[in-house]
Design goal:
single chain; 181 residues; mainly alpha; 7 helices; disordered N terminus
Length: 181
């Protein structure tokens, strides 16, 4: 919205109004005297750990549910004990995967992965030496990548613990059924 003024004194006002129109801010207090925008909120450590990997939660949950259904079918879908067994196996698989993710994050398998990298790079014709000179370079590059998202394993722990709790609840129900019979 621009307002046109007739005399030259008000020409500066016209330019100021046009520049304000171009700098429209969604904050309702924008343009008020002594306005200082609020600083952006920094994520809490709790939020970074548990809610920064939403896609990993979705993948972990989908894979766990598919594994649960497959194991339930394998153990006998109509038997209640198959649900107990399947949920316990899924919990152990998720927690084991989380443990391996923690070990990988700490660099436990860097030497092994660098060895495989060198084996596969040696078969290339265009660059037989690869982009890493030695294990130290490989480790430094991967350590920098690991610092970007240090909590990649948390979704697997959470989903594994949920399935472990489900397994324990189903097991207690099964024990009550057996005791009544």
């Amino acid at each position: 919205m621009s307002v046109l003024y007739k005399d030259n004194k008000d020409n500066n006002k016209n330019e100021n109004l046009e520049s304000q129109d171009n700098n429209v801010n969604k904050d309702p207090h924008y343009g008020m005297p002594n306005y200082v925008p609020a600083p952006e909120k920094e994520e809490s450590k709790f939020h970074k750990i548990f809610f920064s990997n939403k896609s990993r939660y979705i993948v972990a949950l989908i894979v766990s549910v598919v594994l649960f259904i497959a194991l339930s079918l394998g153990f006998g879908f109509k038997i209640f004990q198959s649900y107990v067994d399947a949920s316990f196996v899924v919990a152990i698989v998720d927690l084991g995967f989380a443990g391996l993710s923690v070990a990988t994050r700490e660099g436990t398998f860097d030497g092994l992965s660098y060895g495989f990298y060198k084996i596969f790079v040696s078969y290339r014709f265009n660059n037989p030496k690869g982009k890493y000179n030695d294990l130290y370079d490989y480790k430094m590059v991967h350590d920098a990548k690991r610092k970007d998202n240090p909590y990649k394993f948390v979704p697997y722990i959470v989903v594994g613990l949920v399935f472990l709790i489900i397994s324990l609840i189903l097991f207690s129900i099964l024990q009550e059924k057996i005791a009544k019979a």
